[in-house]
Design a protein that fits this description.
The complex is a heterodimer of chains A (about 160) and B (about 625).
Chain A: H1 14-73, H2 83-101, E1 104-107, E2 119-124, E3 132-139, E4 141-144, E5 147-150, E6 152-158
Parallel strand pairs in A: 2-6
Antiparallel strand pairs in A: 1-4, 3-6, 4-5
Helix pairs in contact in A: 1-2
Chain B: E1 4-8, E2 13-20, E3 23-26, E4 36-37, E5 39-42, E6 48-50, H1 52-56, E7 65-67, H2 80-88, E8 93-96, E9 99-104, E10 107-110, H3 111-130, E11 136-141, H4 147-159, E12 163-169, H5 170-177, E13 187-194, E14 199-207, E15 210-219, H6 224-243, H7 251-267, E16 273-284, E17 287-296, H8 297-309, H9 312-321, E18 331-335, H10 342-352, H11 365-378, E19 394-398, E20 402-407, E21 415-421, E22 431-437, E23 447-454, E24 467-473, E25 479-485, E26 491-496, H12 504-516, H13 518-547, H14 554-570, H15 576-600, H16 622-629
Helix pairs in contact in B: 3-4, 5-11, 6-7, 6-8, 13-14, 13-15, 14-15
Classes of the chains: A alpha+beta (about 160), B alpha+beta (about 625).
Chain lengths: ~160, ~625
């Protein structure tokens, strides 16, 4: 042991001993409970860690996905029939479908009801109505498996 | 028994922690985040949203999205802080008696009720995390909170269904998280807290384990948000210089700039330069416009320099009010995410002339301290429960002079561990258990704690007897080692009184030695493993020859004998490659001969190793070894 242990003096008094037994039993129960909870969560964490690892890798790729999509959206009219441009577009489609196959799903569609679970509102149109809907998607959101890893950045309007 | 959780109920974000197994642990919310925005809202459908969800919808619903209610808790309508906040907040405040209420949806709420909604979410998330009901909490408040504000915070807890066991000061919680109360000496401590929206500095004095707040100061409207704003403004200017275009009204571009500014700020705490790369940031009639620029740490520091300088005045005032000089301060603690910036840390060091303490996450340090206080109140934190670890590994010597560890260093004690070993030679009558302590690979390099002999092992081929060795290390460091022959039930044991009785220096020395020699030791160890492999191959070859002498053709017999002689000649080598090569050559030669035998016989020959213990885990016995070689 690298340090001195603080030991409580042993008492000969029976009632004090009873008290000590109660105290130590309580301590034992507490440690036992901590341990059981810890074990339960360690198991959950183990399962989660695998998912989180994949999630982190996908999240790091999202800005690239965004920019590829922006680039495709800005495809210049005059070269759009060029074979090379078509090839690059095909690669972008391939990347998207590969990511879909491992569980990445785009969220945020114009016209759907606004839902803060899926959307992050960055502006609100001046409009009247009882229903809030997505007016424009300014940046795609993504779900990976069942988790929203990034909410869609949206403009909201009322209808 | 229920847990008492520690809650840092912040102006912009809240965090919570709990003691588990004697250590504080941050509780993540159900969204998986370690902090929760202190924001609530009621949407059109009348649903109440708390935290991240409330924040995400705030622009759609500014009148019914309430934030920074901590600025209002326990305040009176007349207070000048309230009068100022009325102009700043996006929601409506109303006078209620002497106090303040906030309109959300079609109802009016007190700041206590609003804070209770945040606490309610924290409580529910803590219950999900812990898997048990949570009814008690320690909540932190700024040191300058008056009685009314403290009482109101307590009431907020009550409304949320939490019994607030204690309200403690945020700087005190930070000091607890660093264990400053455990030092046993009286200290003067400065706590520098630069959060999302507020700056606080407190001077504490610790005496007899009790913290006293000597003075506080700060700026209620200075924080991370201001830092982000100057960076975004700089980027806007740069973009305008390059493209002659103002992005202020382009909402999507602004959001991307804000995200990038925050990312750059964080990265520049560890690197000296970042590239801000925002392709297709916006579009004009001429087509897309990209933005790429470099931001250096020096530039960032010049941008936020004024903001950082603004913290110096309050620090000096706090020192003056406490009647102290900077040189009187014994420890400086940093709180709040902004204190991760090197320029802030340098400023703090300059003000107090002392390097700030590091190690606890500044976003979490207050919640951690509150949890420690909760643990003390619940009786979780008790000296009797502090468990020791074994400072060095414990094991036994095995074949080839290798040290085989049974209990690894830093294992929490009491603990016990069993492993089954076997003999190294045919008909070996006894094994010697040599108990070792240390991190080195070879037995000779470790400390010998004792040895004993287990004899009376029934005659059997090597690898067949099963000797179970059990290490039992109790809470006082007393080690009991038992060896039991599973075949005969015979056992022997030894008790070593002071296995753990080492000074810190001795432990450190042993650890350093092991580290320094790690490569050399590994080579030696690998050579021994390779030699054990070769010896095992020789043994198998010999056995094949002895058991099947009559069935083998003369040619095969001769080939086997030659191969065995060859291999034996190489056993003394200390070169791992050579030993492995020899073992492979021998095995390659035996295999076709063995295969022939199987073809001849209807039933396969018994494989002696099949049921034995793991190869290589063979106890060495010097005498037996000699016998075998003779």
């Amino acid at each position: 042991m690298t340090k001195e242990k603080a030991k409580k003096p042993q008492s000969a008094q029976p009632d004090q001993q009873d008290e000590r037994v109660l105290e130590l039993t309580a301590d034992l129960q507490r440690v036992q409970a901590d341990f059981i909870n810890f074990r339960r969560r360690a198991e959950e964490d183990r399962v989660k860690a695998l998912q989180t690892g994949k999630e982190q890798a996908v999240i790091a790729l999202l800005p690239v996905l965004d920019n590829i999509e922006r680039a495709i959206a800005h495809e210049p009219e005059d070269i759009k029939d060029h074979k090379w441009v078509q090839g690059v577009s095909a690669i972008a489609t391939q990347l998207t479908s590969q990511l879909e196959s491992i569980g990445l799903r785009k969220i945020g569609v114009v016209g759907e009801p606004f839902d803060p679970n899926l959307h992050e509102a960055i502006s609100m149109d001046d409009s009247e109505g009882d229903h809030e809907v997505v007016a424009a998607v300014l940046q795609n959101g993504f779900m990976f498996a069942d988790t929203v890893i990034r909410p869609a950045m949206v403009q909201v309007k009322r209808i | 028994m229920g847990k008492i959780i520690g809650i840092d109920l912040g102006t912009t974000n809240s965090a919570m922690a709990v003691m588990e197994g004697g250590k504080p642990e941050i509780i993540a919310n159900t969204e998986g985040n370690r902090t929760t925005p202190s924001v609530i809202a009621i949407n059109k459908a009348g649903e109440r949203l708390v935290g991240q969800l409330a924040r995400r919808q705030s622009v759609t619903n500014p009148k019914n999205t309430i934030y920074e209610m901590k600025r209002l808790i326990g305040r009176r309508w007349e207070d000048k802080e309230v009068q100022r906040d009325i102009k700043l907040m996006g929601y409506e405040m109303v006078k209620s008696g002497d106090g303040v209420k906030v309109k959300m949806g079609d109802k009016e709420y007190s700041a206590e009720e609003l804070s209770a909604m945040v606490l309610g979410k924290l409580k529910a998330d803590a219950e999900a995390f812990l898997g048990q009901p949570v009814t008690e909490a320690v909540i932190t408040v700024p040191a300058y909170f008056d009685d009314a504000q403290r009482q109101a915070t307590k009431d907020a807890g009550k409304i949320a269904g939490l019994e607030v066991k204690r309200i403690i000061n945020e700087p005190t919680a930070a000091a607890l998280a660093y264990g400053l109360d455990k030092g046993g000496k009286d200290e003067k401590i400065a706590v520098y807290d630069l959060g999302g929206g507020t700056f606080d500095v407190s001077i504490l004095e610790l005496g007899d384990g009790v913290f006293e707040v000597k003075s506080t100061n700060g700026d209620t409207h200075l924080g991370g948000a201001d830092f982000d704003r100057v960076i975004v403004n700089y980027l806007l200017d740069e973009f305008k210089k390059e493209n002659g275009q103002d992005l202020t009204d382009d909402k999507a571009a602004m959001q991307r700039l804000r995200d990038e500014a925050e990312k750059a700020k964080i990265e520049l705490s560890t690197t000296n330069e970042v590239t801000i790369n925002l392709p297709f940031l916006t579009a004009t009639a001429d087509g897309p416009v990209h933005f790429e620029t470099k931001l250096t740490r020096a530039k960032l520091e010049s941008l936020v320099g004024d903001l950082v300088d603004r913290t110096a005045g309050p620090c000096e005032k706090a020192l003056k009010d406490a009647g102290l000089k900077a040189s009187d301060i014994d420890a400086v603690i940093l709180v709040g995410g902004m204190t991760r910036m090197p320029v802030v840390q340098e400023k703090v060091q300059k003000i107090f002339g002392k390097e700030p303490m590091k190690g606890v996450n500044p976003d979490e340090v207050v919640a951690v301290g509150a949890a420690i206080q909760g643990g003390v109140l619940a009786g979780d934190v008790k000296d009797v429960l502090l468990l020791d670890v074994t400072p060095l590994s414990l094991g036994i010597e095995t074949m080839g002079g290798v040290s085989t560890k049974l209990i690894e260093r830093n294992t929490t004690i009491p603990t016990s561990k069993s492993e089954t070993f076997s003999t190294a030679a045919d008909n070996q009558p006894q094994v010697e258990i040599h108990v070792l302590q240390g991190e080195r690979e070879m037995a000779n390099d470790n400390k010998s704690l004792g040895r004993f002999i287990l004899d009376g092992i029934a005659p059997a081929p090597r690898g067949i007897p099963q000797i179970e060795v059990t290490f039992n290390l109790d809470a006082n460091g007393i080690l009991n080692v038992t060896a039991k022959d599973k075949g005969t039930g015979k056992e022997q044991s030894i008790t070593i009184q002071n296995s753990g009785n080492l000074s810190k220096d001795e432990v450190e020395k042993a650890r350093k030695e092991a580290e320094a020699n790690a490569e050399e030791d590994k080579k030696k160890r690998d050579a021994v493993d390779a030699r054990n492999g070769l010896e095992n191959a020789i043994y198998q070859a010999q056995k094949l020859k002895d058991d099947n002498g009559a069935k083998l053709s003369d040619d095969d017999k001769k080939a086997l004998e030659d191969a065995i002689t060859d291999a034996k000649g190489k056993v003394e080598s200390t070169d791992k490659e050579e030993l492995e090569k020899a073992a492979k050559e021998l095995t390659d030669k035996i295999m076709p001969i063995g295969a022939k035998l199987y073809e001849q016989a209807e039933k396969p020959a018994e494989d002696a190793k099949a049921e034995g213990p793991v190869e290589g885990e063979v106890v060495e016995d010097d005498k037996a070894e000699d016998k075998k070689e003779k």
